[in-house]
Amino acid sequence: MRKIFLTIISFTLFISSASASYIDGNLLKSMSVAPVTENSHLQFVGYVVGVIDSNEQDNLCVDVPPNALTPVLDTVINYLANNPEKLNASGSDLVVEALIKQYSCPFTPKS
């Protein structure tokens, strides 16, 4: 388990230093359907976590512990499967689009 966690953290750090458009929806989808035991699936998990962590608009509020990410990942996987026409877009944009409906931050008006 520790090795998996370190791999995810390492990949997340790698992704944060790479260009956001490096991974498009097609590549992200192929990573998402890889068997859980393969590195590409771990890269998918790390990429999604990295996008959530670096959400520049601060419009995503994903408040789940790392061991409970399955529903979050399933939301992204389903979005990619159901929107094949969008797969040429940036992977990070697609992750935000996939999660925004279910995990958007509540609006708090400024006083």
TrEMBL record:
InterPro entries: Rap1a (IPR041238). Keywords: Signal. Coiled coil: none annotated. Residues 37-105 form the Rap1a immunity protein domain. Residues 1-20 form the signal peptide. This is Rap1a immunity protein domain-containing protein.
